[in-house]
Amino acid sequence: MNNIFEKGLTLTEMLVVISIVIVFSSMVFANYGKGQESMALERAGQKLGQDLRRAQEMAMAGSFDSSTNAVGIYFEESSPTSYILYYNYNANFYYEGGSVDSPEEDINIEEGIKICNIKNKDVEVPNISVSFAPPEPVTRIQNYNSEYEAFIILAPEAENCATTTKTRTIKVNNVGRIEVNNP
Questions:
Q1: Which of 92, 88, 98, 94 is nearest to 150 (CA)?
Q2: What is the span of the domain harbouring residue 120?
Q3: Which terminus of the chain has fewer Cβ atoms in its 10 Å neighbourhood, N or C?
Q4: Residue 126 domain flag
Q5: Which string of DSSP letters, residue by residue, matches 119-177?
Q6: SS3 track for 42-86
């Protein structure tokens, strides 16, 4: 004999549950790519800030030979997916390349991320050197040790730099303060 109070799931109830799971899954996967891009941008910004701090620490520690004047990082607009950690051997304290400076490491930015803009104060420039001279270390932007700030603006490679709002700004001032900011 069939009991009307017997528990069980009907086919209709099962289809409703499955359709709810499908709707929620599609919402999650639709935003998955945007989250990946945002996380890559955040990682690249933090890595750049970390590399600047590493150069600063190398200068303070004096972890180089006596002919080295400074340790720095060089950014160039024509090379938007990498930057150079270098030892400086000249009195100008900025990267000149060739036999004057020794590139210690060519550092690639995370895949999918690029340098959009390089600014010295509020003026866009094609390249910039941020160097740290021991023992304090004195922070120099290009060859200036006061009243200058370097801004390196990162963005996803797929974005147009002029219109994107998805950026990370890394700011370095002459006091040696390094900040990683959202726009």
A1: 94
A2: 49-181
A3: N
A4: yes
A5: EETTEE-SEEEEEEETTTTEEEETTB-SS-EEEEEEEETTS-TTT----EEEEEETT--
A6: HHHHHHHHHHHHHHHHHHHHCCCCCCCCEEEEEEECCCCCEEEEE
pLDDT at 130 over 80: yes
**Per the domain annotation, does 13 fall within a domain?**
no
Segment 151-176 shows an average pLDDT of 90
Judge whether 15 lies within some domain: no
Per-residue pLDDT, 88? 81
> How far apart are the C-alpha atoms of 49 and 90, rounded to whole Å?
25
**What is the pLDDT confidence band of residue 101, given thresholds at 50, 70 and 90?**
low
Residue 64: C-alpha distances to residues 47, 67, 101, 131 (Å): 23, 8, 13, 14
For residue 111, the domain's CATH number is 3.55.40.10
What pLDDT shows up at residue 3?
64
Give the pLDDT mean for 69-89: 89
Vertex 10 angle, CA 4 and 12, to 5°: 135
Whether the predicted pLDDT of 91 surpasses 80: no
